[in-house]
Design goal:
The chain is 35% helix and 14% strand. By secondary structure, the chain is an alpha+beta fold. The protein has 2 domains: 2-102, Beta-grasp domain (Ubiquitin-like (UB roll), Roll); 105-231, Alpha-helical ferredoxin (Fumarate Reductase Iron-sulfur Protein, Chain B, domain 2), CATH 1.10.1060.10. Strands 2-1-5-3-4 form a 5-stranded mixed β-sheet. It has a two-stranded antiparallel ribbon with strand order 6-7. Strand 6 and strand 7 form a beta hairpin. Helix 3 (105-113) packs parallel to helix 7 (166-176), helix 7 (166-176) packs antiparallel against helix 8 (184-191) and helix 7 (166-176) crosses helix 10. The longest helix has 16 residues, at 216-231. The relative contact order is 0.13.
Length: 232
């Protein structure tokens, strides 16, 4: 079938303002949006810029906005986004470096701020053991690939750049509920802030956008309950 893609274009080094360009592509319904972008870049316009790496929904590099929804281009099939024109735009909330590539520096800085690593003073002879039930508590959060789809979808992130955001809070959840971690109190104190967990007002857009089907809003609300429980 022949598809029409309307793609956001902007090169700050030469363009005064963003614009959109339309491309016609032959594709099967089972092909992915990423396959179509590759056809455009390889066969029609080598200047089109976007990120991709594994192309299998693991690295999270090809997150973008497709027909108004943040998603991974390598996971979205043509049949799922079929319309008269398929609109492809960069992730919202981030500065555009070129076309569909955004600057994620602020996002990674927020992830780094929650210290996404194990805090532990003891050094075991072998691995750090954990009961299956304890691991199950964080197993869903572990699936986060830091694609930033949740950040691009979050209305709070779009209006308040100081808000920590859903992905960093999921990273905090993963460590706060990890029984091997020794930084519980300091981690809870860090996210107990108007720009931390309390900045989330439960729009659930992050949960709807997550390509790994993580219940992001539920995780953030659980953090709120733990913090409130320790204050009562």
């Amino acid at each position: 079938m022949k598809l029409r893609f309307r793609i956001f274009r902007f090169d700050p080094s030469r363009d005064c303002s963003p614009y959109q360009r339309t491309y016609a592509v032959e594709a099967d319904s089972e092909e992915r949006v990423l396959d179509c972008l590759n056809k455009i870049r390889w066969e029609q316009d080598g200047t089109l810029a976007y990120r991709m790496s594994c192309a299998h929904g693991v690295c999270g590099s090809d997150a973008m906005k497709i027909n108004g929804k943040c998603a991974l281009a390598c996971q979205k099939l043509v049949k799922e986004v079929l319309s008269d024109e398929i609109l492809v735009e960069p992730l919202p909330s981030f500065p555009v470096l070129k076309d569909l590539i955004v600057d994620l520096s602020s996002f990674y800085a927020k992830v780094d701020w929650v210290r996404p690593y194990l805090i532990a003073t003891n050094t075991p002879e072998k691995e750090r053991l954990q009961l299956p039930g304890d691991q199950h508590k964080i197993s869903e959060a572990i699936r986060c690939i830091l694609c930033a789809c949740c950040m691009g979808s979050c209305p709070v992130c779009q209006s308040d750049e100081r808000f920590l955001g859903p992905a960093p809070l999921v990273q905090a959840f993963r460590r706060i509920f990890d029984t091997r971690d020794e930084g519980l109190e300091q981690r809870l104190l860090a996210v107990d802030d108007p720009e931390g967990v309390w900045g989330c007002v439960s729009h659930f857009e992050c949960t709807r956008a997550c390509p790994k089907e993580i219940k992001v809003t539920k995780h953030i609300n659980e953090l709120k309950r733990v913090i409130k429980g320790r204050q009562d």
